[in-house]
Every structure is written in structure tokens, then in C-alpha cells.
Amino acid sequence: MKDGSHESLADYATRLVYRSELTRMQLKRKILARGALENAAEKICDEMQEAGLIDDRRYCELFVSTHKELGFKRMRMELLKRGVGRDLIDSMVTFDPEDEIERAGELIRHWGPDLDTKKIWGRLSRRGFIFSVIREAIRRTCDRSS
Predict the structure, then answer these.
(1) pLDDT tops 60 at residue 135
(2) Confidence check: pLDDT of 2 > 50
(3) Which residue of 39, 74, 76, 115 lies most exposed, with the fewest beta carbons within 10 A?
(4) Number of domain units in the chain
(5) Does 41 map to a domain?
(6) Chain center to CA of 80
(7) 5-39 pLDDT per residue, tens
(8) Residue 146 has pLDDT above 50, yes or no
(9) How many whole angstroms separate alpha carbon 134 and alpha carbon 136?
């Protein structure tokens, strides 16, 4: 922004949070990229948080519910990258082997029966599913399709 005033930066931040859900860290990075000083960016983030416009817990809930195609490991990594705190992630993202196997199996079925096992392994591992989950999902899915 040419005008780096608090008001113009706050207006910019407001437009951002109305456009899409953001974590506090994501919003702060965007404000800093506009040329704001650290303390000004913090103040704006505080104001947005107090107004309920940013909420890392809400962001985490939304992310988890809309990214079912990701495994536990990748989901945690993506949330950390977006600035969600470890304690919050620990409370919101828990590893449930049966749920992971079922979600991996759904992806395998979605991709179709013609996909070879090597490609399935690669796709699932890139999505953050762990070895034991991938192995079991492939076993169960192949057994069902026989």
C-alpha cells in the first residue's frame, strides 16, 4: 500500500479475512508484505482476533473438515506451515488408524481399479498417509474388488 497508515492496513486486512479464512500467521505475513512494521501488523491481528474475524481454532476445524484426502501426517504439516500452534493441532488432529485406512481406501476406489499399486503408494504417501495405513488400505480395497 502506498499509504501505510493503520487504517489502510486494517482495511486491507479486513478485505483479506472476508475473502477467505486465514490463520493469524497468514494474515500477519500478508500485512507485513504490504510494508507494515511488525508491531503494526501485530496490533491489526489483535484487532481482527478480538472482532472474531480470525480464529486459528475455527481455521483448524475448517481445514480438517475440508481436507479429508490428506493423511494425519500431511494434515499436521500443512497446519503447522499455516501457523496453527502445535497444542491446537494436537487437540484437533488425532490419529485414528481405522479412519485413516477408510479414507485411504476411498481414495483408492475413487482412482479406479486400473491404477497400479506403485502409483497408489506414491499418491497416498504424498498425501501424508503412513506405511501401515497404505498397506492395509490396499489390502482391504483389493480384497473387496476381487
Answers:
(1) yes
(2) no
(3) 39
(4) 3
(5) yes
(6) 8
(7) 889 999 999 999 999 999 999 999 999 999 999 99
(8) no
(9) 6
Domain that holds residue 129: 97-145
Task: Assess if residue 1 is contained within a domain.
Answer: no
The count of other CB atoms within 10 Å of the CB of residue 67 is 15
Dist. CA 138–CA 146, nearest whole Å: 12
- Contact assessment for residue 111 and residue 120, using Cβ atoms and an 8 Å cutoff: yes
Give yes or no: residues 88 and 101 share one domain: no
Structure pTM?
0.86
Q: CA-CA distances (angstroms) from residue 5 to 8, 27, 38, 61, 137? A: 5, 17, 13, 33, 54
Q: For 68-104, how does the pLDDT look when each residue is reduced to its tens digit (9 = 90+)?
A: 999 999 999 999 999 999 999 999 999 999 999 999 9
Lookup: cell for 146: 476381487
In a domain, residue 12? The reply is yes
Do 80 and 61 reside in the same domain of the chain? yes
Please check whether residue 133 lies inside any domain of the structure. yes
